[in-house]
Specification:
The structure is a homodimer of 443-residue chains.
Chain A: H1 2-11, H2 18-29, H3 35-48, H4 52-63, E1 79-83, H5 91-100, E2 106-110, H6 120-124, H7 136-146, E3 148-152, H8 159-170, H9 177-189, E4 195-202, H10 211-226, E5 232-238, E6 246-247, H11 249-260, H12 266-282, H13 289-301, H14 304-315, E7 334-339, E8 344-349, H15 351-361, E9 377-380, E10 387-388, E11 393-399, H16 402-415, E12 416-419, E13 429-434, E14 437-440
Chain lengths: 443, 443
């Protein structure tokens, strides 16, 4: 009867009270509310919206449906980064060990790729032996020992969110700002953080392409964090083209390792440093963003950051040799260059088309139960704004076989648009959002 | 993938095309679309609405998901009546045999009671032995032999509607005019009708209390019928008080039998005659409503109408002796008068409170799987507008035991409101709606 009543109320634009959110989340997690009732409720919530208090109550309800990572015994700050997702976004793999090597604890819980976007867990699992399915106890032990852990949402963390998220994915109720914000924050707050940095992607390849909605999402999450004593800072970054050059799980691990050695592509390094600076300042380890950046450069040049990644890999059962020799990673059977079909300006490198190309190659998912091939993907060296000659190599295709190479060629012909003129791409980092409001980045 | 795409489209206010409605209805009926996806779709449809073409396509899709009653071999007209439901509404039990006794075939498919409203099937099953679960073949044979059959929606008729209706009931997506209209019309069109009369209830005890929405529903169904060569006429009748005096399954059968002998309460007779006149004119058996009414009076006074009911009962396995001796019906163990608690004007006899009282006595359902006790209920002789003295009997309570009598007393204390003055009740029959438009009844 509870579910029926709450569906009616939300359907008619009414308000669901905190105790009711709690009861609904618990009943659904326990299997007492059937999926079809929750699906109807979620569609009503999607279309009618949630007010600030409801978003907050839903966050608490999902957080309270499971366990949390109690890290209160640590004196060190615990700061995580969350990205709304994109193509070529391997920042977490660089950032987590880099920031952890500077004394801020990073208890990072990530997701898998779905649709055109990639996922950190899939990337990590490209490393032979790497396990992401740790229990909370094992994660806590690793944090004590290494200061960093890279895991998936365990069954113990926010089980109501886990179940609701899967249902939203199947019922076209994903792109709702209050539902997204509550889902992310219920998991992040379960990590026992003292601070959180958000990378909100904007542009054609982002989950929410419009800047206005990105800022709304950032502000909603910042408020949820602030109300619970967890300061949140958000940067809005470009996802109108892939980040870095590598797109595909093993290829991205290789690029992330290069970045940890100071050899990453400039856009990847800049986004990593910008997010890392926020984490180090939030964590109280650096007084300013400039100081933080210098600390990160030293951590990289000294080898400390790469070494931290090696220790994380080792602790999670992976082959740490990958950091010294990326050939340890599984390798694609077939690879081939992709050449510019004409002379002109690279107008666009469309992330969705690249992401769909990875799926077509077997390296992504359309359903959660799909297996992914870690070896396939693209390394795209061309960037929007580059001038190219006909026949000039713009990318390398990594596939399972000849047929895959053809699939990859077709995908890149769609993804990489060459024209005589083009609008400039979005600024790499455009806005910074804090509790005090929105500012243009760098101002 | 189809369901996901259609959920998204409807969620965003888009249009679902005829072929897509058909595919969705078939896939859902076949179990290829899970309940949770259909639930999200229905909530989106509820909140975003369906346009005229979509409502029409959904009707066809649900109709086409199953078999139909092919009655084209009959030269006689086939006309049914559908009511949107209320309390004390036993009109079908009187009307079907009455109209059939005058040469119009009545292939009537009815539903069960749910919530505060009663259902024709539950009433019929109060007659010992009466079976409502006939196959389409058995129904067709009975129509040939008797000219009238009173059954439930068989598994063969509109299975997509059957499944969708059950889901709507559990997901607060019932009160949507396009969804209601398509659901009713898909079943009615499956009866092979040449005409249909609608009794659209209005007022506090109706499914859609507001006149404006009642007229919209009537117009939607009239259009759906007209587009398919089945003329539909609707009367809007009062459901701000129970119809007739008896409320409860066996009690209503007894009152219906009295009505078939010309001894029904005036409001029940008037609604029956008004709906019957429309059926007889639509069926081409009477030239005018006045002529139809005279024919019905003769059918009743001559005993032909009651005799037709007897034949229907016999054909469906029931004890036909009930028509001559209502004591054949199961009888309540305990009964007691309900007296006016004060002197004054009967301001209201609230149908919802009466209906809930019947549920409390064990004679109604809150869930489809509940069993009903046919014996319990009320006979309420007081009508809004009556002047009553303190202690005057207003009703009789029929219950299983002493405790039930107390429950019934409490229900009637809530339902029957006595005051010093009161607004007049709604006109018994207020509007008549046809393809040509809406007119005040009697004008």
């Amino acid at each position: 009867m509870l579910a029926q009543r709450l569906i009616e109320r939300k359907r008619d634009g009414g308000r669901v009270e905190p105790g009711e959110w709690r009861a609904l989340a618990h009943a659904y997690a326990a299997g007492h509310v059937p999926d079809y009732q929750m699906a109807a409720f979620l569609m009503a919530a999607y279309l009618r919206g949630l007010d600030r208090g409801e978003t907050s109550a839903l966050t608490d309800a999902m957080l309270g449906s499971g366990s949390t990572l109690d890290l209160s015994h640590l004196s060190a700050a615990r700061v995580d980064k969350h990205s709304t997702g994109g193509v070529g976004d391997k920042v977490s793999l660089v950032l987590a060990p880099l920031v952890a090597s500077l004394g801020v604890v990073v208890p990072m819980m990530s997701g898998r790729g779905l649709g055109h976007t990639g996922g950190t867990l899939d990337k990590l699992e490209a490393i032979p032996g790497f396990r992401t399915d740790l229990t909370l106890d094992a994660a806590r032990a690793q944090i004590d020992a290494v200061g960093c852990v890279l895991i998936g949402q365990t069954a113990e963390i926010a089980p109501a969110d886990r179940k609701i998220y899967a249902l939203r994915d199947a019922t076209a109720t994903v792109e709702s700002i209050p539902l997204i914000a509550a889902s992310i924050m219920s998991k992040k707050l379960a990590e026992g953080l003292t601070g959180l940095v958000l990378d909100v992607k904007r542009g054609s390849g982002a989950f929410l392409p419009e800047l206005e909605r990105d800022l709304e999402l950032a502000e909603t999450m910042i408020r949820l964090g602030a109300d619970r004593g967890c300061p949140v800072v958000a940067l809005v970054t470009a996802m109108d083209r892939p980040l870095g050059r590598a797109c595909g799980n093993a290829l991205e691990v290789e690029e992330a390792i290069a970045a940890l050695k100071g050899e990453g592509p400039p856009d990847l390094m800049n986004v990593t440093y910008a997010l890392g600076a926020e984490m180090l300042v939030l964590g109280g380890v650096a007084p300013t963003a400039d100081a933080a950046r210098r600390m990160m450069e030293v951590a990289i040049s000294s080898g400390r950051a790469a070494e931290k990644f090696q220790r994380v890999i080792e602790a999670q059962g992976g082959n740490p040799g990958v950091v010294d020799d990326p050939a340890v990673l599984p390798q694609a059977r077939a690879c081939e260059l992709f050449a510019a079909p004409r002379r002109g300006l690279v107008a666009r490198v469309e992330p969705k088309a690249v992401g769909r190309g990875i799926i077509a190659l077997g390296g992504g998912r359309t359903r959660m139960e799909d297996a992914v091939d870690p070896t396939v993907g693209f390394v795209i060296t061309a960037k929007p704004g580059d001038w190219v000659e006909a026949g000039e190599p713009l990318a390398t295709i990594f596939a399972r076989d000849r047929a895959g190479v053809e699939v990859g060629q077709a995908a890149l012909r769609t993804a990489i648009v060459i024209a005589d003129e083009a609008d400039p791409p979005l600024p790499l980092i455009s806005h910074r959002v804090t509790e005090r409001g929105v500012e243009r980045y760098g101002d």
